Amino acid sequence: AFAPDGSLYMTADDRTTTGMWRVDPNGAVSHVNLGDAIGASLPVFSNKGTYVFTAGTARDPSELYVVADGAAPRRVTDYNAAIEAMQLPVRKEFTWRNDGFDEDGVLTYPLNYTAGRRYPLVLQIHGGPTETASTDRFNEMDAEWSAHGYFVLEPNYRGSDNLGFAYAKGMLGDVDAGPGRDIVAGVKALEAAGLVDASKVGVSGWSGGGLMTSWLIGHYHIWKAAVSGAAVNDFIEEYDLSDIIDYMPALMNGISPWTPAGRKTYIAASPITYASQVTTPTLILSDTGDYRVPAVQAYGFYRALKEYGKNVTFVAIPAYGHFPSDPVRQLETEKRWTGWMYPYL
After folding, report:
1. Where are the alpha helices (DSSP H) in the chain?
2. In the chain, at which end, N or C, are there fewer CB atoms within 10 A of the end residue's CB?
């Protein structure tokens, strides 16, 4: 966002936090001190330089802040007072090392956590892949799982945008095997730390997180339950049908599936190729009007798992978009997602 004085304001993920920076007209870069406001949106400026932005804190999803005359940000709304008054879980950065990378994620603790006890674990894998799990962002599903006595890990696998370009580009040409190792290494690190019960681990995600879920259940058999939402299960279908026409070629280092070598590469990377190897009870979710990852991929993965005799349920959500936009279907989708884990964990 450009300010009236010609400076440029930008937000970016930095490890497991989100910050704001200012680049002045001469190119000098400075960090913007937002005080207690975290996870800020890009600011909107008046012609006098006063600006507003939305941001959360450690205890609420989002409020409106104003900055005038160079003063500290001032919070001007209180929409989420009821949430702030709740007993909310502790969320911390958790780090591990894998394949030469120093990796991180957000670990949400069970409510009333007792040191020395091992708890069930749910993975909530972010999409993108150029996104980041951040302690700055309120996550209602993490809070619910925490209230049921679970740890929740949101891993920042290679491809995430919080650890520099080398890490972000580490996914190119290796869209699921390498990131899958990153995620499993995070689980193993939690087990080694004595925090989680290795016999009670669930895996889930939406979009790119759904892709990783579908891949992980076909290659690792450490999961007791899985939720695969809006998942890229067939890379050739994603290449042909997604609204982002340059996305698959970029991830595949420019290879097209419509060459003999490219077709083999796309098939090898597609989770549906390994449907016969799945042993995890799986819930598949998809919007019927998804333009980003068309629902045909969910139908195909469901039919493959069903015909191999797997434990699978598919819910097609009558909604337009890559995730339901109306609050009624959002809530229903999240309840199905969180609730799938309880009988198995």
Report:
1. 81-84, 140-147, 165-168, 177-192, 208-219, 235-241, 247-251, 260-269, 296-307, 327-341
2. N
- Rounded Cα distance between 98 and 188, Å, is 11
Q: Which amino acid is at 230?
A: A
Residue position matching structure tokens 């087990």: 191
Amino acid at 314: F
pLDDT attached to residue 119 = 97
pTM across the whole model: 0.91
Please give the mean pLDDT across all residues of the chain: 92
Write out the two tokens for 67: 């900055």
Total residue length of the chain? 345
Residue appearing with tokens 């993920």: 13
CB 224 within 8 A of CB 202: yes
Tokens of 281: 């009870």
Phi, psi (rounded to 5 degrees) for 289: -105, 35
Q: How confident is the model at residue 179 (pLDDT cuts 50, 70, 90)?
A: very high
Give 225-258 pLDDT, tens digit per residue: 999 999 999 999 999 999 988 888 889 989 999 9
Per-residue pLDDT for 57 more than 80? no
Q: Cα dist. 233→57, 122, 185, 307 in Å?
A: 36, 21, 23, 16
